[in-house]
Every structure is written in C-alpha cells, then in structure tokens.
Design a protein that fits this description.
Layout: H1 2-16, E1 32-33, E2 42-49, E3 59-67, E4 77-82, H2 90-104, E5 109-115, H3 131-139, H4 148-159, H5 161-164, H6 175-188, E6 194-199, H7 201-212, E7 217-223, H8 228-233, H9 237-258, H10 266-279, E8 282-284, E9 287-289, H11 291-299, H12 308-323, H13 337-348, H14 355-368, H15 372-377, E10 404-411, H16 417-426, E11 430-438, H17 447-459, E12 468-469
Parallel strand pairs: 4-5, 4-6, 6-7, 7-10, 10-11, 11-12
Antiparallel strand pairs: 1-2, 2-3, 3-5, 8-9
Helix pairs in contact: 6-7, 9-14, 10-12
C-alpha cells in the first residue's frame, strides 16, 4: 500500500516538474546587400522565439547589419555592437560607426549591429497609430512636471501608455530576452564565444550577458556603464539625480575659466535663469521656452562636451531675453524610440504603482538636483505596465570566461562614473579604464580610451590596472579635439535615454 502511494506521489511530482526545453536551433542568416546608400554593408533578419521559455512557439524578428571583415585571411569572428537607449538602433549606429570600428580592429572582424527585439526594424513595438498621434500625446503636457499641479495629470497620461502599448512584443522586451537573442545570434554567426561592445544602456545588455552566459565570453567591453543593481531594482534615480549636476558644475567652472558666452559667473546666471523661466516662459525668436525645456537643453551638456559652446550660446540668449523681460518647436518625426525605450525600461524593472510613491520619489530626485525630476517622471508609464517575468535581476557577480573591460567617464551626465566603478567591483574578472574628462561614452571622445578598447577587442589585452586616460583640453577652448559629432536638438519628450 505504502509503495503504491509513494509511486503515485512520484508520478504526480513528475507531472508537475517542467520538462527541460531544448535550446532552439541557431536561426539561419541570409545576408544581402543593404540599400545602395549603404555600400559595403550587408543586411539580414533572423527569427527568434517571442518567449524563450517556449522555443517552439510564437516568434519575432531581429534585424541585422554587418560590415564584413576586410582581412578575411586573418578574420577572428564577429564583433557585435549595441549603442544603448534603450530604443536606439544598432543598425543605424553601425552604419555610422562601422568603418571606424572595422579599421580599429584591423579589419579582422565582421562588425555587426542589431536592432534589439521590439526596436527599429525588428518587429517594432508601436504605441501610436500615427506620427501625429504621438506628437499630440507629447504636446499635451510638459517634458516633465515641475509644478505640483502638473504632477497628477502627467502621471495619469503616462500611466495610460500601458494599455496603448499592450502588444505581444511588449510583454517580451526585457534585457534578458535581448540577451537570449544575442546568444542565439552568436551561434548563428558561427562564433564559439561572444565578442561584444556596448555603450550606455548597451552596457547593461553586456553586463546581463556576462552574468547569464559567463562561459560564452571571448571579449566584452562596456562604455558609459549602468550599475545593474540600481537599474534592475528601480533605483537608477539615485545616480541620475546627481550625475548631471556634477557635469554642469564642471560646465560652469570651465565656462568661466574660458570666458565662454554664458560667463562670467555662469552658475549664478543659471540660477537666475531658472528662477525667471519658472515664473514665466521666455520667448526667443519664434520659440517659447518653458522651464522644462530649459532643463532639457542644459541636460545635453552632460552628454556632449564637444557641444558645450552651443549649449552656452543658447543659455546666454535665454538669459539675455529673461533679463530684458521678454515675455513650438515643430513635432519630430514619429519613430519607435519613445515606445521601445519605455517597453524595455518597464519590462526590466518593477516600478511603483501609486501616484503618491511617484510624487515622493520626485521630491527625493529634486533634492539631488534640478535634473532629477526629468529623469524620474517618464517611468510613470510603468505604473500599470507589468514587469517581465523573464527579466534578470541578478546576481551580478559571475566570473566570466574572459576578462571584461569596463570603461567610464569621470563626468558623465547620463551614466554616472559610479556605475562603471560598481560593475568593476561586481565582476571579479574585470578591469576598469577611466577617462578623466566630460561627456557621455569615452569611445566618442577619448583617443586613449578608443585605442585601449580596440586593442582589447582585438587581442584581449587589458590596460594596466589603474589606467586613467587624460581629459581632453577645456571644451570651450579646443574644438579641434572633437572626435564625434552630436545630434543636437531640443528634447521632444521625457524619455530618459542612455
């Protein structure tokens, strides 16, 4: 009798235990020439499981591009790149940067860009029926609420996006889903181990891969690094609320030192400008600038030191208009960045549900700096947006099969240098490289960092421990040091991009 009962229990447990799913086969890739405007690049699309827990179920697509290795005899493999966002197109960035990357690694890699699932050309998440509808949504309120009366309407409006964006892909856009696609892509490309370079939010993809597939790493470089413990737990605002202010303090110091357009006493002029525009919007030419738009413009200084002279010139004009007592930009083209940014952010992180919690965190963010609320309020779109059950939340301390190169800028208004320091501590087999200057992503502005990154990706050689790349000259004095341009536009919506 006891044996029959035991047999029944065993049978029941067997029925309740999920059967391990075999990994899906590597998808085939049919490369073909891209559009004539992209000579030398090939394009393709692969099919991947929509839900990696159901590898034989529904599928989605991931769009690819590559710059083939020019040294086919010495070819090592594929170098995969992601520029961040979340929501940015890896295809567009590789079309822009692929030649530079290929040359930097001596033509020995196929440089491969991909639009992560739900983004760009990869079966994109779209929350709006048209560009006009999206523009009207963004125009219906401020970039972020900066007066108490604006907070509840903003929260309710962004909270409604969960219903507007409720599509199958929206439920499978976590970074962990992207990383599973990335490992499938590695196999499809024929590489036994991954060679990857990720910047900004792309660093989080890299860090997640290092922890989910630590044995599959050949070389993994991340630049402009997010602390995964902050991002995955919804505490990223702890860094965001102070990082941009630290860069702006440098902006003001170096502006005064160089006698830039916004000086002298640029910090005092900034405080006076904010006080003035908060009381009344400023008209400059045909454009009306409200408080949130001035904050968003100044925030660009945290991204692009090579554009500081432009930022200072506009702030100077705004301050002069304000002093004179003088009392909208055209809607942007619709694209998938706004939708995809929220799709990935909300999938990765369990954010608060209640308005009171958002308001309380906003006070905390504002106590850190004027920029804190800008970074925080767009996450209210996640209030009714379920976090992905397949997201990865740690642990973050895996020992990878090859060392990881972690690169950070000392003054980065988007991905705080403390994030790079944190990841270098978390990953036991890693090396930190510091750029002592200003701006977002060292690969865009420090030749020293660029050389170290290329050398590492090519041969695995790490910079000596404690290496610090010297800052470029004062950005207000030496425009010749610019290594990268910047798409310098007024902000069109409260998306905290990386």
């Amino acid at each position: 009798m006891r044996s029959s009962v035991l047999g029944a229990v065993v049978a029941l447990l067997a029925a309740l235990t999920p059967v391990a799913q075999a990994a899906p086969p590597a998808p085939p890739i049919a490369w073909a020439a891209c559009a004539p405007a992209r000579p030398g690049f090939e394009c393709a699309t692969i099919t991947v499981p929509l839900d990696h827990d159901e590898p034989r179920g529904a599928t989605t697509t991931v769009a690819l591009t590559r710059k083939p290795a020019t040294d086919q005899a010495g070819r090592i493999g594929s170098l995969l790149f992601n520029p961040g966002g979340p929501g940015a197109s890896g295809i567009d960035y590789v079309h822009a940067w692929g030649e530079k990357m290929s040359a930097g690694v001596h033509g020995r890699f196929d440089v491969v860009g991909f639009d992560p699932r739900g983004i760009g050309r990869s079966n994109p998440l779209r929350c709006f029926a048209s560009e006009q509808e999206r523009a009207e949504f963004l125009a219906a309120g401020p970039i972020f609420p900066y007066e108490p009366a604006q907070e509840r309407p903003f929260f309710d409006r962004y909270r409604s996006l969960a219903a507007k964006c409720d599509q199958p892909i929206a439920r499978h856009m976590s970074t962990a889903d992207v990383v599973r696609d990335l490992d499938l892509l590695r196999r499809a490309l024929g590489d036994s181990k991954l060679t990857y370079f990720g910047t900004s939010y792309g660093s989080y993809i890299g860090t997640t891969y290092a922890n989910m597939f630590p044995g599959n790493v050949r070389a993994l470089a991340i630049d402009g690094v997010l602390d995964p413990e902050l991002w995955s737990s919804g505490r990223q605002v702890e860094a965001d609320r102070i990082a941009t202010k630290e860069v702006l303090d440098e902006f003001f110091r170096l502006c005064d030192e160089a006698a830039c357009a916004f000086g002298p006493n640029s910090k005092q002029r900034w405080r006076a400008l904010l006080e003035s525009v908060r009381a009344q919007p400023i008209t400059l030419g045909t454009e009306v600038w409200a408080y949130d738009e001035v904050i968003a413009w100044a925030l660009l200084a945290g991204f692009a030191s090579e554009s500081w002279t432009d930022v200072a010139a506009v702030l100077d004009q705004l301050a002069d208009a304000s002093d004179a007592g003088l009392s909208t930009a055209a809607a942007p083209d619709y694209d998938n960045f706004f939708d995809a940014n929220l799709g990935t952010t909300c999938a990765d992180t369990e954010f608060p549900r209640a308005f009171g919690a958002y308001r309380a965190v906003s006070r905390y963010a504002a106590a850190g700096s004027d920029f804190g609320p800008y970074w925080w309020w767009s996450t209210s779109a996640c209030a009714d947006w379920p976090a992905s059950p397949d997201r990865y939340t740690g642990p973050w301390r895996a020992r990878t099969s090859a060392p990881v190169l972690v690169v950070g800028n000392r003054f980065d208004g988007s991905t705080d240098f403390r994030g790079a320091q944190a990841v270098a501590r978390q990953l036991p087999n890693s090396r930190l490289l510091e750029y002592a200057g200003w701006g977002h992503i060292a690969y865009r502005r420090s030749q020293c960092a660029i050389d170290h990154i290329h050398s590492y990706l090519l041969s695995g050689s790490l910079p000596p421990s404690g290496t610090v790349c010297a800052a470029n000259p004062n950005p207000f004095l030496d425009n010749a040091s610019q290594l990268a341009g910047h798409d310098f536009r007024r902000s069109t919506g409260p998306v905290a991009s990386r």
